[in-house]
Specification:
Helices cover about 15% and strands about 35% of the residues. With about 210 residues, the protein is of the alpha+beta class. The longest helix has 29 residues, at about 10-40.
């Protein structure tokens, strides 16, 4: 014979149990928030420099596919696993470029390199592909602790690929030397192209 037994709990016991469950849920929520922040990487004063170039891979009458080539340098222990590029101007969208990290031979910083193919619409309106965040190393004379802005600008309706530079993030120069001169290694894969150089503007650095 099946028997049903009434629950002997009083209202005050039920109320205390509900309060206990609420406290447990609050503690669980706080623990989850703390774990979230603990798992989120924090970067400060870690970027040393970088370059981005692109090579034309294929094209149709309306689109081109390029290979974005990224080279970045960081304070040791601050290197990311990917670089997030966004497009503006003639194109829109965003792409994550996976990076491979190696420690420089001097042991002073980490180098990151990576590449990835992206497809863009052909347009004569210039397209800007940029990777920007914060912060640059704190000992710089210019824009210390400021945002970095690694970008390339291309006309997707025109032919050719971008110039290429292999200049390292840090160049050692003699102290108090005047003038201090060094060469910028650069080349252009497109025959007949003339390379020009200039310093970045304040707007471009931000």
């Amino acid at each position: 014979m099946e028997k049903n037994y009434p629950c002997p709990l009083r209202n005050d016991v039920i109320a205390n149990g509900i309060q206990f469950l609420r406290r447990c849920l609050n503690i669980l929520s706080i623990s989850t928030i703390l774990l979230f922040f603990a798992a989120s990487p924090t970067y400060a004063s870690h970027f040393r420099g970088g370059t981005v170039t692109w090579t034309r891979v294929s094209e149709t009458s309306t689109h081109i596919t390029i290979r974005l080539n990224v080279s970045l340098s960081w304070r040791i222990g601050s290197e990311p696993g990917s670089a997030f590029f966004s497009a503006s101007g003639g194109n829109s969208g965003s792409w994550s470029i996976l990076l491979s990290n190696t420690t420089d031979a001097t042991g002073a910083w980490t180098n990151s390199v990576g590449s990835g193919e992206i497809t863009l619409i052909k347009t004569s309106t210039l397209t800007r592909l940029a990777y920007t965040s914060c912060c640059k190393i704190s000992t710089l004379s210019n824009n210390s602790n400021g945002n970095w802005n690694v970008f390339t600008v291309l006309n997707t309706a025109a032919g050719g690929s971008s110039p290429v530079s292999t200049m390292p993030a840090i160049i050692n120069m003699p102290v108090n030397a005047s003038p201090a001169v060094f060469n910028i290694p650069a080349s252009d894969p497109d025959a007949g192209s003339t390379l020009t150089y200039r310093l970045a503007t304040t707007t471009e650095m931000a």
